[in-house]
Amino acid sequence: MAVDLHLHSNASDGTDPPEIVVEKAAAIPLTAIALTDHDTLSGIPAARDATRSRGIDLIPGVELSVDHHGVKIHMLAYFIEPVAGPLQDRLEELRAGRAVRNDLIIERLNELGYPITMADVLERSSGDAVGRPHIADALVAAGLMKDRAQAFHELLRDGGPAYFERDRLTATDAIELATASGGVTSIAHPLTIDAGESTLRDVFEELRAVGLAGIEAYYSEYAPNIRTQLADTAAELGLVATGGSDYHGAGKPHLSIGTGRGDLVVPDSVLEELRARRG
Ligand code: AMP
Ligand code: FE
Ligand code: FE
Ligand code: ZN
Predict the structure, then answer these.
(1) Cβ of residue 149 lying under 6 Å from some atom of ligand 1
(2) 191, 222 in Cβ contact below 8 A?
(3) % helix / strand / coil in the chain, to the nearest 5?
(4) Number of folded domains that form the chain
(5) d(CA 78, CA 186)
(6) Nearest residue CA, atom 13 of ligand 1?
(7) Cα of 7 to ligand 2 centre, how many Å?
(8) Same domain, 65 and 114
């Protein structure tokens, strides 16, 4: 059987409540899933409750957007319990940074002639990690954009007309904090990294040196041969080849739990390998 170690609920920018994510995953069936909402663990308790009597394991996780010498990386942290702890205690600051940035984005959108308010945005969100996807949803609800994809393409994408930076952890801090919290880390969708002067492999090796455990080789948006190449790279570097769909419910309607675009299989052994990396 298979696992899916990259899933979003409406605790961040997915559209399904955590218990529905678990219900859908158990129905496939998958043996284990990781809930990896952006900057929040608030979906974990409900997800965990939903696993009882369903024969599926829940790995508590979180996805962080981090900086590595000017290079943006998404970092998945696994086995992060929703209690106080080194990484956990930083999440609130990261969410506060989102609030500052959301205000800037809305102000810019208003200047550009898109009259939406923070109240409109909060109405599109059910969780505590509010971000660009919810702003996109507010633009759609107001009839100003067709869907999230158009809102990102025309306005919200990195470097787009309504884009603002926000506070991030460094990749090294994220790995060290996750490790101190009893967790392990894996670089999400590694091919989205724009490594600039250095190579992806350099980035993997630099972060392996500070404790990185894996890279997300089995990613739904990658062709099977690319997944294999990334898994080979992971093996060469002594990293775990992790995987997941990046399911967001209706937020990314083409991606299904477990199978991604239909051809994703993340083997059970990935989770065993990640467990073995815990300190
Ligand atoms: P934020 O965390 O607020 O910076 O928003 C980034 C999130 O927006 C990513 O994690 C994706 O889930 C989502 N996203 C980015 N680009 C797109 C897109 N073109 N269409 C839909 N969602 C997107
Ligand atoms: Fe997302
Ligand atoms: Fe991501
Ligand atoms: Zn994600």
Answers:
(1) yes
(2) yes
(3) 40, 20, 40
(4) 2
(5) 8
(6) 133
(7) 9
(8) no
Tokens of 221: 């948006």
| Mutational pocket test of ligand 1: of 38, 140, 219, the residue with most ligand atoms within 8 Å of the beta carbon | 38
Handedness of CA 183, 248, 150, 139 (dihedral sign): negative
Q: What is the pTM of this model?
A: 0.98
Q: Is 99 in the pocket of ligand 1 (CB under 6 A)?
A: no
Strands 71-78 and 57-68: antiparallel
Note down pLDDT in tens along the chain; length 279 residues. 999 999 999 999 999 999 999 999 999 999 999 999 999 999 999 999 999 989 999 999 999 999 999 999 999 999 999 999 999 999 999 999 999 999 999 999 999 999 999 999 999 999 999 999 999 999 999 999 999 999 999 999 999 999 999 999 999 999 999 999 999 999 999 999 999 888 999 999 999 999 999 999 999 999 999 999 999 999 999 999 999 999 999 999 999 999 999 999 999 999 999 999 997
Within-domain flag for 162: no
| 47, 117: one domain | no
- Ligand 1 atom nearest to 157, measured from its CA: 16
Q: Quote the domain boundaries for residue 178.
A: 2-88+168-277
